[in-house]
Amino acid sequence: MVSRNHKKSTAEATRVSTRISMRLKSSKSAASISKVTKVTSKTTSDGVTKKTTTTKTVAAKKVSTKAKASSKSKKACSIGGKEGEEEGEEETAEDKDGKEPPGPQAPKYDPSPVEPTILTLPTITGEGEVHPGITHLLTTNPSLSTIITRHPCTLFSPPGLSEPVNPFHSLCSGIISQQVSSAAAASIKSRFITLFNSTNTFPTPSEILTKDIATLRTAGLSQRKAEYITGLAELFVSGDLTNELLLESSDEIVTEKLIKVRGLGLWSIQMFLLFALKRTDVFATGDLGIQRGMAILAGRDVNKLKFSKPGKAGKWKYMAEEEMIKLAEVYSPYRSLLSWYLWRLADTDVEVLKGVDKTKER
């Protein structure tokens, strides 16, 4: 009798389980699946409970698989949506200015000003005293406030402007730094100084003339760089060039004097004017970093420009020099400070351009 009742109970439970399974298949709610299964497990015997538990586990696996797939899909959508949203925000910001949307490099430069009140200036640099060039840049183009806030111009800060200047030392350092990394330049310069003293004091022009070219080359200088430094030392010893002349003359006269010196081209002279003499209106249109930064500032897609064809002379440029000069006119007489931030936009290593370290001066 017990056996028959048990069989009936089992058969009834099987039918109930079958009906529930059919409902589960048609149901789209994971919560309802869990609820029905729990009710069934309570109303059945231990033997049936085992079957119900199996059914519950299978259903849970299906839901879990779908949940995982759904989670992956949502995650992918979330990532794509975030990128799309950021790109959309940048495009909107550019559209407000009536410019073309920025290229892939533009996210490094947020064209939106932080706040109009940022023109109070101390809030930008955290300093009580701010160079008037910063005021001019922000007044001319408030969108520069973001890059100015992120990268204070240490070159024209009060500590930077108070650094001692030795034109001869700076010009020699510039020659040493030509076409090498900042680390390599520092190493060569250290060995060069060691040829004359062990106190890390840069040698005077007359001291350099006591060493021949072969000896100078042992510091790691190329033949031409050793010749350039020797020739420069001769000009200082003869009096054709002096530290006082270079410190007190205008940018035009300094350029006119130095362009005649072997090893000093226009770019090297411009870097000397900017980093050593701290002249405020230097704008090196031939510098690729400045060209790239100017293109980004103008909203150009620099990645597309990267694959453009060279000009007639075969020298590739991010932007024509004439156009750069025209666009930069409004920033005069503080285009040196503009150059600092254009290098930041272009991710240029400014240290290698300085050509100067903490070597002691005589």
Count, helices: 20
Alpha-carbon Rg, integer: 36 Å
The CATH homologous superfamily name of the largest domain equals: Hypothetical protein, domain 2
Overall SS class: mainly alpha
Query: What is the distance, rounded to the nearest whole angstrom, between the alpha carbons of the first and last residues?
Result: 116 Å
Q: State the domain count.
A: 2
Beta fraction: under 5%
The CATH architecture of the largest domain can be named as: Orthogonal Bundle
3D shape: elongated
The ordered string of helix (H) and strand (E) elements is HHHHHHHHHHHHHHHHHHHH
Given as residue ranges, the uncertain stretches (5+ residues, pLDDT < 50) are: 23-126, 356-361
Percent helix among the residues?
55-70%
Pfam families: HhH-GPD (PF00730)
Biased composition (Acidic residues): 84-94
Biased composition (Low complexity): 27-62
GO molecular function, one term: DNA-7-methylguanine glycosylase activity
List keywords for this structure.
Endonuclease III, domain 1; mainly alpha; HhH-GPD_domain; DNA-3-methyladenine glycosylase activity; 362 residues; 20 helices; DNA_glycosylase; single chain
